Amino acid sequence: MLPFNADVSVMLKRYVPDAADGAKVRCSMDNYLTRQNHFYLDEADEARDFWHVDYIHKTSPWVWWQQFLPVEPILAALAMKVLQISIASSPCERQLSKWAFIVTKYRTRLSLSRQHKLVYCSSNWKLAENCNSDKWYASDSSDDQE
Question: Residue ranges per domain, the chain?
Answer without folding.
Answer: 6-83, 90-132
